[in-house]
Amino acid sequence: MKLKLISAVPAALLLVFALSGCGRNDDRLVMVTEATFPPYEFREGGKIVGIDVDLMKAVAKKTGRELVVEDMSFDSVIAAVQAGKADVAASGITVTDERKRQVGFSRPYVTAQQVVIVPKDSEIRGSADLKGKRIGVQHGTTGDLYVTKNIREPERFPNGSLAVAALDAGKLDAVVLDGEPSKVHVALHENLVILDEPLTTEEYAIAVNRKNTALLEEINAVIDELRENGGLEKIKAKYVKQ
């Protein structure tokens, strides 16, 4: 998803965290996320649900903790983990070299792509046709980074649904977003389609404070178990409609 631009964690928070050890000392497993990214995290009936939530429920059950899910701006989730305000960030987070210097990452559990959404009657057929076009992205995502670096300065939106709405209203020529969320958005806008050619291939993982190696090992063990027994595919199939 999401190579978000991480804001610096205040020094005072880092000091508090350093003095408090690797994490919080209660029976909760606090997960932070941005709940506008279906099928990984979204609101349904007043609750936050999705692939990432079910994965962390499995971790909580295995480790005897109560899962608590907190919704916040994606730009804040890594900082919350760094400061010890949350145990994990699970929000369709793309593994990048820069992020590896800030947090520990679990084993990847999803392979994802950045794709291009256009109107059905668009002349855009691939990445080469995006030059000079009005392109919308979710602010700070890997789609934002790719478009900025390789094509042009995009128009940035707080979330994908707003970017897609602007495209449907004729205010943009294309939108670049993660593949599975794009399917959800396009299903709500009959005038839009996803191009066959993806722009990138990425991997999502769970972010944990670098000092909390015990929790990271627990998460990896659950991911391995779910992959071996088919549970990971069942979680994905629950939310991803073929």
Question: What labels describe this entry?
Answer:
242 residues, alpha/beta, D-Maltodextrin-Binding Protein, domain 2, 2 domains, six-stranded mixed beta sheet, 9 helices, 14 strands
3D architecture notes:
This protein folds into two domains: 11-109 and 205-239, 3-Layer(aba) Sandwich (D-Maltodextrin-Binding Protein, domain 2), CATH 3.40.190.10; 113-201, Periplasmic binding protein-like II (D-Maltodextrin-Binding Protein, domain 2). Helix 2 (51-63) crosses helix 8. Strands 8, 9, 10, 11, 12 and 13 form a six-stranded mixed beta sheet that branches. It is built from nine helices and 14 strands. It has helices at 11-20, 51-63, 74-82, 97-100, 142-150, 160-168, 179-187, 213-229, 231-239, and strands at residues 28-33, 36-37, 41-44, 47-49, 66-71, 88-89, 104-105, 110-119, 135-138, 155-157, 174-178, 192-194, 200-204, 207-208. The relative contact order is 0.20. It is globular. Strand 3 and strand 4 form a beta hairpin.
The Rg value, from CA coordinates, equals 18 Å
Task: State the helicity in percent bands.
Answer: 25-40%
Report, as a whole number of angstroms, the end-to-end distance: 20 Å
Please, what is the average pLDDT?
90
Fourth-level CATH superfamily of the largest domain: Periplasmic binding protein-like II
Which sheet architecture does the biggest sheet show?
A: 6 strands, mixed
